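Example record used in the benchmark description.
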Amino acid sequence: MKIGILNGSDLTKPERGGGASGFISNILPQLPFKVIIFGIGYSNIKTWEEIPIYPNAKFISIANFTHIPQKIPKRLPTLLLYLYNRYRILNSGVDALYIHSPECALPFVLSKSKIPIVFHQHGSANPVIMSIYKWARNQLFTQIFNNIYKIIYKRADWIIAIDKLCLNQAVKNGVGQKVSLIMNAVDDSIFKPDENARKETRNKYGNLNYDFILLFVGRLEEVKNVDKIIDSFLYFPDKKNIKLYVAGDGTLRRNLERQVREKRLIDNVIFLGYISHNQLPSLYNMADVLVLPSSMEGTPMVVLEALSCGTPVIASSVGGIPDIVKNGVNGYLLEQVNPRAIAETIERMHIQRFDRLTVSRSVEHWSSKNIARELGEIFNKLIK
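Model output (structure tokens):
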């Protein structure tokens, strides 16, 4: 059995570890079948050249985005590229397509193909609502994407929902029985408690044993609410030994750095910039808490990765997060996302402290090995 995976990213770069790309990267070594990933290169990769990633997986770039102007949302050229290459992908010898974004799926569900099509929905919210392109957040584009999802629900052979909200959305829109709930996957052979890494990384950044370390990992965009984490420091009576490490980059970085200077928090908030995926286990182990107060999420990789490393989480009660984070067990959910609520929850976790092995065991079900087995069962059912 050979499966074609469609995702508009460059999977030859393992550091591209967020969202759908992170999910695919985590399950690839465990999948019980051969895989060809039809993606888009972000470097000078030759198009349609097979690049081995794992013994069972190869990457093919159908185009590259090295010259796409930043003012153009990548979703539009991605849709057009998969539409243009539809025939070639369908006739590449794969037995089924496993598609991870609506703009990649639409060209293949508009008309019936001879091979099964599985669509994995990575979030219940409309993807343009919080676009970094504010002009794209209007009602027209929102409705267009709502209609794209309805077409996919109707015409795909199977839908995989990343959380219960996605599942309910698919069922409400008439997907019927052709749907499964498979939440994100984490490679627990890499993301695991490591006391030596904790000590070494805390020493590397000059942290004392009694310093309480907060960590944010993700894009520095409006939807992530990093500014609210920073403002939460204003509610700490003594913030001398509380630090926040911000791992990631984005359009709001300069604004956030200015906010830190204006609030006189330069000793408390440290911007690490871009961090490669293989550096994240050490950061998670260094931290006492991961903080993710996003306005919109699916089932975030960073939450599963942090918990798998034994690091408890403070996160918004959105998307699939409430299915993973349990109050008092492996972290706390934020019912209100504001600086005061974040500060009060941090103080609570500072007092409580969590057993890192217990936190790690709370996400054993979401290991990449378990999720790969569930996916294998779905494709075996569809391919006859």
